[in-house]
């Protein structure tokens, strides 16, 4: 009887510790997201931007100012953020770019193409041939294959929204 009571107490304590760890993790995650959103808002105010929508990703956050047709991108680089403002009037195209790792001959017979996916980015190409700017959505080192479909849907959603806002070249002249 005492073995059963001891086992029950041990299982109960393990469950309580696990629940506490999950609660602490969720609180820390909420604090970090709140901090990033506040930082995005503060930096956006410095550029006189007001965001109609925003997105927080693993290594990047961005906000869309639909009225001024600008995007503020903040990329996390070792405890600080690098910022970039993109004027959608200067963008020629917005597309999703997938990068795959090395696939040897015959490997696709046993593995799915998605298993070789290394990253998914939203890429902006500019009219004046400036270097493209990328927003990283998926990186195989930070995400799992199980997160891929949700992340890909998110990237397609943003690509659709931003592509509708880009003015075709024929309408500029």
Structure write-up:
The protein has helices at 2-46, 148-165, 169-172, and strands at residues 53-56, 60-65, 70-76, 81-87, 91-100, 117-126, 133-139. It is an alpha+beta fold and 173 residues long. It has a single domain (49-172), classed as PH-domain like. The strands form 2 sheets. Strands 1-2-3-4 form a 4-stranded antiparallel beta sheet, covered by helices on one side. The longest helix is centred in the N-terminal third of the chain and has 45 residues, at 2-46. The mean pLDDT is 84.
What is the level-2 CATH architecture name? Roll
Q: Would you tell me which CATH topology applies?
A: PH-domain like
State the secondary-structure class.
Answer: alpha+beta
**C-alpha termini separation:** 87 Å
Helix content percent band: 25-40%
- Overall body shape: flat
Quickly name the level 1 CATH class.
Mainly Beta
Count of alpha and pi helical runs: 3
Spatial order of strands in the largest sheet:
1-2-3-4
In total, the number of domains comes to 1
Give the integer mean of the pLDDT values. 84
User: Tell me about the biggest sheet?
Assistant: 4 strands, antiparallel
Strand content: 25-35%
How many distinct beta strands? 7
- The ordered string of helix (H) and strand (E) elements is HEEEEEEEHH
How big is the Rg? 22 Å
Low-confidence region ranges: none
């Amino acid at each position: 009887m005492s073995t059963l009571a001891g086992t029950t107490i041990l299982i109960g304590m393990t469950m309580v510790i696990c629940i506490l760890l999950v609660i602490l993790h969720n609180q820390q995650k909420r604090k970090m997201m709140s901090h990033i959103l506040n930082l995005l808002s503060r930096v956006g105010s410095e550029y006189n931007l007001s965001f109609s929508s925003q997105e927080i990703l693993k290594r990047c956050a961005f906000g869309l100012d639909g009225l001024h047709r600008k995007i503020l991108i903040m990329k996390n680089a070792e405890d600080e953020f690098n910022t970039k403002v993109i004027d959608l009037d200067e963008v020629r195209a917005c597309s999703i770019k997938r990068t795959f790792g090395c696939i040897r001959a015959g490997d696709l017979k046993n593995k799915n193409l998605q298993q070789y996916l290394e990253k998914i980015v939203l890429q902006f190409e500019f009219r004046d041939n400036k270097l493209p700017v990328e927003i990283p959505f998926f990186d195989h080192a930070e995400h799992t294959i199980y997160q891929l479909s949700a992340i890909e849907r998110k990237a397609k959603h943003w690509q659709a929204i931003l592509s509708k806002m880009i003015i075709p070249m024929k309408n500029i002249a």
